[in-house]
Amino acid sequence: MRSIVHIPKNGNLRLLLVVFIFLFNLLKFIIKKIEKISFIFFDKIIFRRQNLEDIIKNSGKENIIILGNSPDIDLSFIENNKDKDIFTVNHFYDTNLTKSINPNYHMMIHRPYEKELYSDTRIEKFKKFVSLKQNTIFFLTIEWKKILGNKKNIYYLDQTISQITNYNISSLLKFKIFPAISNVLISASYLSLKMKYKEIYIHGYNLHFPIYALIPHYYDENIKKNIFENFDTDAYKLIDLTLNEWLLIKKLSNIQNSKIYSTNKTFLPIFEQHDS
Length: 276
Prior knowledge:
- Helices cover 36% and strands 13% of the residues.
- It has helices spanning 11-46, 75-79, 120-132, 145-148, 169-173, 184-194, 231-255, and strands at 63-67, 85-89, 105-108, 137-141, 154-157, 199-203, 259-263, 272-274.
- An 8-stranded parallel sheet has the order 5-4-3-2-1-6-7-8, covered by helices on one side.
- It is elongated, with a radius of gyration of 23 Å.
- The termini are far apart.
């Protein structure tokens, strides 16, 4: 049976009902708009997120390699590109690669309270890595400050609540915030653009489906995790979010006249392939 809205014949009642319907629809429209801007409002006005303008400029080189967590890392690629800076991420510190690679930068977006990733032993290993790498600049989430304290080579990033895809291009190009991002390599690319690198080479990253589920990290023998509660829907959502973030990074790089490349043994078809 179809539902029919009856408009009273009485003129005043009819006008009242029309006004009520108009205000109700207007309220729904306003609520939808508020949902889109509320996180950004809270990030900018309430929490007063840090200004990234105080982060150092690059080392003077124009090119940088961002090293991912794929098992397909090719050390010969690193050896053949010694003229470039190196940006490592997350659990690089807990691998044998530290013996042959001394990064210029290291980013950790995992929080130390994520117990499935950080036992006390792992935290101690990371503390040792930081103490040994005096010439490496570290970008860490603010939660690490309680553990590592203030050091001249550590920048603590106060990440926003809102995802990077909720910000417009003009806001991101100012590089005054560190937005929430789904993948650490995207975060490292964002900061590399902020530091004005002209060429950025992504190495050791595989954008296969499903992300993180079938393609292991080189430390997965130590870390076992099931990140999907509902595999069919959650995996696709993460794929969609990650792709949109990479596309946004590509747009930022194009505006800034920087180039981002996918390298050998790296599957990231959004960017031009560079295998030398």
